[in-house]
Amino acid sequence: MATKAAGRARTAKKPAPPIERKASSTKRVVRAVRKPTAKTLMIRKTVDPGWTWDDGLPLAQARQIGNTIYVSGQVAYNAAGQLVGKGDIKAQTRQVFDNIKAILTAAGAGMADIIKINTYITDQSKFMEMLAVRKEIFGANPPASTAVVVAGLAFPGLLIEVEAIAVKS
Q1: Residue 57 CA, distance from chain mean position
Q2: What is the pLDDT of the chain when averaged over all its residues?
């Protein structure tokens, strides 16, 4: 039998016969829904070492997600925002790692928690001097690392920038 609906011919369907079910064969599926707990939520927070020179910049010195801390690239500015060690890669490297230490301390971590660093330097001839300072800082337990020589950094006078990833133990 055909009926006309909205300008089209349509064939009417016969109603399906009722399905007979036995009481014992009916299964009920129950699904557990887990509510988020403190362990399953990854708490995210900004780490601020308290420097005022960076307050106007659209960046966080570090972000912590769970127990992992991502430290933004650190340069040789002291807490007052002044360049330390103009023209001296060793002095700038020490200041960079002092900054990283201050940030990690603010997050409740330490230098021993660093698992990876990325280093950017502007003068390849200064690479071994930078490595000597890194060896002073990390000793026999250095983190995984990458080093890249770049044409320049964000502000004049900067010779090195280091970013770090740390996992609080």
Answers
A1: 18
A2: 88
Q: Cα–Cα distance between 70 and 167 in angstroms, integer?
A: 9
3-state SS, one letter per residue, for the chain: CEEEECCEEEECCCCCCCCCCCHHHCCCCCCCCCCCCCCCCCCEEEECCCCCCCCCCCCCCEEEECCEEEEEEECCECCCCCECCCCCHHHHHHHHHHHHHHHHHHCCCCHHHEEEEEEEECCHHHHHHHHHHHHHHHCCCCCEEEEEECCCCCCCCCCEEEEEEEECC
Decide if 61 contacts 42 (C-beta within 8 A).
no
Task: Render pLDDT for 131-143 as a digit per residue (tens, 0 to 9).
Answer: 999 999 999 999 9
Q: Which residue has the higher pLDDT, 162 or 41?
A: 162
| Nearest by Cα to 162 from 73, 83, 94 | 73
Mean pLDDT of 78-106: 98
Q: Is 131 exposed, middle or buried (0-12, 13-18, 19+ CB in 10 A)?
A: middle
Domains annotated for the chain, with CATH where assigned, are: 44-167 (3.30.1330.40)
